[in-house]
Prior knowledge:
The complex is a heterodimer of chains A (272) and B (337).
Chain A: E1 2-5, H1 11-21, H2 32-46, E2 56-62, E3 69-76, E4 87-97, E5 102-112, E6 119-126, H3 135-149, E7 157-161, H4 173-177, H5 179-182, H6 187-204, E8 211-212, H7 218-223, H8 232-241, E9 244-249, E10 256-261
Parallel strand pairs in A: 6-7
Antiparallel strand pairs in A: 1-2, 2-3, 3-6, 4-5, 4-9, 5-8, 7-10, 9-10
Helix pairs in contact in A: 1-2
Chain B: E1 2-6, H1 12-21, H2 33-47, E2 58-65, E3 70-78, E4 89-99, E5 104-114, E6 121-128, H3 136-151, E7 159-163, H4 175-179, H5 181-185, H6 189-199, H7 201-205, E8 213-214, H8 220-225, H9 234-243, E9 246-251, E10 258-263, H10 268-271, E11 274-281, E12 287-293, E13 301-308, E14 313-317, H11 318-323, E15 331-336
Parallel strand pairs in B: 6-7, 11-14
Antiparallel strand pairs in B: 1-2, 1-13, 2-3, 3-6, 4-5, 4-9, 5-8, 7-10, 9-10, 11-15, 12-13, 12-15, 13-14
Amino acid sequence: MIIRPAVSTDLDSVVELARSAGIGVTTLPDSREILAERLRLAERSFSARLPPEKAYYFFALESVETGSVLGVSAIQARVGLDDVWYNYRVANTVNAFKEMGIHRQTPTLYLTNDMTNCTELCTLFLNPKARSGPNGHLLSKCRMLFLAERPDLFSEKVFAEMRGYSDASGHSPFWESLGQKFFKLDFPKADYLTGLGNKGFIAELMPKNPIYLPFLSEDAQRCVAQVHDQTGPALALLKREGFNYNGLVDIFDAGPVIEAFFAPDSNSAGIG
Amino acid sequence: MIIVRPSAPGDLPGIEKLINESAAPLSTLPANRDKLEEKIEASRRSFAGEADMLGRERFLFVMEDTVNREILGTSGIDAHAGNGAPFYNYRLDSLYHSSQQLGVHNEVPILYLTHELSGRVLLCSLSISGRYRDTSYFDLLSRARLLFLRAHAARFGERIIVEIQGAHDAHGSSPFWDSLGRHFFGMDFNTADFYSAVKSKTFIAEMMPAHPIYVPLLTDAAQKAIAQPHAAARKNFDFLEKEGMYFDQHIDIFDGGPTLEGRIADLNTVRQARVGQVKFTEHGQGQQKLVASMQFEHFAAGLCNLTEGIGDVIRVSRAMAETMALREGDNILFSPV
């Protein structure tokens, strides 16, 4: 197995992977056109034909024996510079009134653009048949080595949005209790549109004012910062690398944002 | 005879008895002796024109059967809603969530906490004995206030509001409160309402969440309760709508009940009121009218049969005139029933 930059001739394998990924891997949409564009973008990024802040580094895991692509992962050099990057911050509202014996803490979601200009680890997907052994680790960690080699290309803060909880049929209780009330789309459709690059447009239809969490269903409240069942291993791996939940969640499925400050050599110039 | 007059300290037991029999508890008239006593005292001092009540006058009227001295009802006016403190409501507004690219335009109802109605003239504290609810004395009790406002217009602002108690479910709880306020107080509506009456509504209101509330996130039952009057308040709601008040976009922050608004000069009772000069008659003949003296501290109103004489002269039965402390030659206001 080797990791190498993904190239345009990988399109058929990548489309195949996307088809098997299912709902919730937002950055790997099941669209040939979009994926072809991603591969072109990756080629121009690796050959430094793009300004660093626009770069998208797309990696392929290739079986040396068969030559087939078994998995992908990527680094988005900067987010939120072309469009607007949204997250909810899970904050706390307290109201207290001693005389009445009241002291209430109310989790409250604030819409933020806090991750703007940060580097994102994204698009991790591994063919289910290749999930045994170290392949997953290789796909994920190769990105850390790339970051270490070229810190000048990335922000000091690196993050990943983990896929949020949805049930076996793809329904997200968080989306159904919040997003769907404002936007008459089911989660799979909203997620698909997001993957096509419409996330900013969809976010425009979402509520801009803070949301008091008790207004959502109990199922939805339980989803906040919970990862999808299949995302447990990926989360564990990144946590071991030093990533931590930063209090932000995805605005659609409430999956957690985890972040780390990446500084291989704190004296080195060019980290910014 | 039955008249409406300013409440007096001696009315306390009678008012207490009335409240304890009332179907819909009124938050502005608490079943709490100390608060009630305070309210009657504030009213006495407001009618007496004491200087420190300026800007926060609260007038409480009682309807009394003058024969057996029974208190049959109460009604009130706060000259400035909030009585000098902020007076909170939710304003029901709309946001458009719209995306040109996706061709989607959604209207989203939203509630903003506001105190923009602070300082309006506020009708409040309406409570009537069950035996008189469906008689013309309901009209007397409620409309006497409007003639008081007409007689002393210079003392009051031009715009008037009234908060109508909101809808409750079969278990006596408020679906609006259960979906909204309860999350922030952890107590049922009646407990919160009790504190509101005892502590001051402003005080409790300031503990409500500061951010606007998206209506689609409330329960269906709560959404339906928005601007719906309580069954026991329906009559008052209909009555005030007929007077010319209207629901615009304000609701109560606790139970979602509608706030009606209007201009005093536009209300039917006020528009149709005419001034006449009293002359006594020994006969109670003529058409029944709503009649009010133009006194301030010794205001009185009643229903009586009038005959119009020459010029401004109005003939009032001596018995009724004496009950209302009217003298011959006094000016009175009268309005059709």
